Amino acid sequence: MELSSVGTLSTLTQDGWPLGLGVRFAVDSEGTPIVCVNASNRQFSMDKRSTLHVQLEQSGSRSPQCTIQGSLDKPEERMLLKKFHSTFEKRFGKEVNEDFIYIVTVERVFQMEDFMEDGTWITSSDYKLANPDPLRDFAERIVEEINTHNMEDVRRFCNIFVDLDFQVSEAKMVWVDRLGFDMRLISPQNGIFEVRIPFPREVTDEKGVKSSFNGMSQLAWEVEKNYHAPDFKKVKQLKNITCRGH
Questions:
Q1: Which of 95, 211, 215, 218 sits in a 20 to 30 Å window from 49, CA-based?
Q2: Residues in domain DUF2470 (predicted)?
Q3: Positive or negative CA dihedral for 71, 74, 76, 79?
Q4: 18 and 93 in one domain?
């Protein structure tokens, strides 16, 4: 949610029809969405139930989605309203009318890793207690740099660190976080797969990511050249994205 700033807010209008509006939003420290809705779009019914749907593009290969179910509320406490108002203005760097500020009180969250995949329901308490990934602000840039300058290493990672019974012809990093990275790999005979390759240890900053990646790159090269025996457990779990002919 912190990586996105626009979503679709859906509510019931006064005549009972659902209405989805594109909105900008910010989140507070507990992940509560703060939205700005101008006067002409405030056609809400007495039923405050609403959803905020947000999606994030990852390396052009995957679109994780998050749908928050809750109620659209106007903070009644003056100090609380000021706090939400300040958070929104800080996020976008511009002044907005305090009267336009609303929050979506989170009841539960539905999360999907990509289109057409099964989703998972998350309770409001688990959502509020979740810790944002420390790499979130620069993960996209790191992925782009690696896919641009280290394609040979990325392909070698799949062939060395993953237990495959086929050869990978093309590979691409999709995302990176503190525990490892997600890869999209292609085999002309077998189809398209996604695999999760963990770091040797948890990383917390950009320096740690690059250090771990470089160390894994060197090890993969040595194993490929038979200079080093593979003394690590290979990843066995693959997710089939699509098969040839589909």
A1: 95
A2: 140-212
A3: positive
A4: yes
